[in-house]
Amino acid sequence: MSHPVVRQLRDFVLGSALAVIIATCAFVAVRNRELAAKQIDLASRAADAIAEGQAPLPTVHAVLVGDAVPSTKNPYLRQREVKDGDEWRPLTAGGSFDDKLFYDAASRFERQGRQPFKELLKDGSGCAIAVRDAPAYAQLGHVADRSRGIAIAVTPPAHPAPYPFLVMIGVLGLGAALAAAGALVGGRAARAGTFAGVAAVAIPCVLWRAPIASTAIVLVAAALALAQGAQLTDRLATGMRRHRTALGFLAPAALAMLILVAAPFVIGLVLGFYDHHQGTWTFVGLDNFGEILSGGGRPLDDPLNFWFILGVTVLWTVANVALHVTIGVSLALVLSRKWLAGKGIYRMLFILPWAVPNYITALIWKGMFTGEYGAVNSMLDYAGLDHVSWFGSWATAFSANVITNTWLGFPFMMVVALGALETIPKELYEAAAVDGASAWQRFRHITLPHLRPALGPAVALGSIWTFNMFNVIYLVSAGQPGGATNILVTDAYRWAFERGERYGMAAAYATIIFFILLLWTVFGTRVVRRKGDDS
């Protein structure tokens, strides 16, 4: 057995590694927040100064921008002038480096009803911009027919504070000393030393005013001390030494799952408790979830109401999965007949829709449904039927989505059913035929019970795929008409990228979708297992 100090330091390294990760995240968050606040405050003071006719701050590029007026050469175009320094000049692409930024900011200011705004630029430079009305513009008297102007200030680039390596080395050294001292004393002092050593990493977080990170590190230290008292850490170390070869093979996959699955999931879960507005994150607790589940005060038949979208999503999933299973199993039964010639060719042709990337298929079907002369309307015209405005009503737009996704989904169910049919002993059918069983009786009592164990997981997997089928909804109907054919995943996308960059709301949607699918998976698995046991 290794020396107690060695075991103690081993446990300290484990706990302190997690504590350092938490402290690092806290440092980055605090550093970015302080930098943003400092830059935004600087830009605001510079915009206020230029708007009130005072001297601009020396380090900030602050200008006055005139309202947009029709161009003298082309009345369909609008132009602006900018007072940069002591002179007015046209605001064009050939001016200063920030001219395009000024023009876009002024246009956004007017689109928002002349509401002031200030934020960090999203280019990662650390620059901040502040925009407000400029009542002093009228006294400047440059152009008589303009009564108001816009004050815009852009700060110079700023670099965040460097990582405090020396501080972290110092607290880690202090923590290691405390842990080793506890091990030398032994008994309860060893656990107390472990707790104190890991908790020492929380000292910088306290100084950074990061209470959540400080609490998390203290909880990690307490959990490690309790695990050490129950000898869980010793047993874990012994097991890792014993199975180090197997763990070596599992480590790459586990690391990939941690980075690609676990970390994004946790980040998305946390973001659901924040609200994002103009580059600023604000902790709002359960407000996002409350707004979603309450429908946001909208009536139940409003396409933006969560329960309306959930109903559309459930109907979308049920309709598609039912068609996938029905068509897939029917084709599998036909392709499994001995009398059918050219089975290989038919199987290849039926699998093709599944092999083609779904976004390409969605775009093809979109073109077939769109317009008076699309392929579908052309076939209706050839058959003597009236044209259909496929995206003009909910029923037709929803049907277009279902038709497209059915084309994409039935090959998977067909392949699963074909595999299951190959495992059914032929003797069962021969015995049933001798006993006088009809084709329906053979299907009901032989084929269906043997298909159910294979189709159960396939239906569960297909339900999850269909529930989250973003490409078809987004590319075929695009939510038309009026967002009525959106499903949960497409509505989450629109909250993130089309409704003011409300990433917190989108993350809350994603969390709700996850728990819905988790409940469905658990429930569906139990139902399939129970039916399998009964059969």
Description:
The structure is a single chain. The protein is α+β, with helices and mostly antiparallel strands and 535 residues long. It is built from 20 helices and ten strands. The chain has helices at 4-51, 99-111, 137-140, 165-185, 188-199, 202-207, 211-229, 232-242, 244-271, 287-293, 306-335, 343-355, 358-369, 375-382, 394-422, 426-434, 439-467, 470-477, 488-497, 503-534; strands spanning 61-66, 69-70, 78-79, 81-84, 87-90, 117-120, 128-134, 149-154, 274-277, 280-283. It has a six-stranded antiparallel beta sheet with strand order 5-4-1-8-7-6, sandwiched between helices. A two-stranded antiparallel ribbon has the order 2-3. It has a two-stranded antiparallel ribbon with strand order 9-10. Helix 15 (394-422) packs across helix 17 (439-467).
Summarize the structure.
With 535 residues, this protein is an alpha+beta fold. The chain has helices at residues 4-51, 99-111, 137-140, 165-185, 188-199, 202-207, 211-229, 232-242, 244-271, 287-293, 306-335, 343-355, 358-369, 375-382, 394-422, 426-434, 439-467, 470-477, 488-497, 503-534, and strands at 61-66, 69-70, 78-79, 81-84, 87-90, 117-120, 128-134, 149-154, 274-277, 280-283. The protein has four domains: 4-32 and 162-240, no CATH class; 61-154; 258-303 and 500-514, no CATH class; 311-485, Orthogonal Bundle (MetI-like fold).
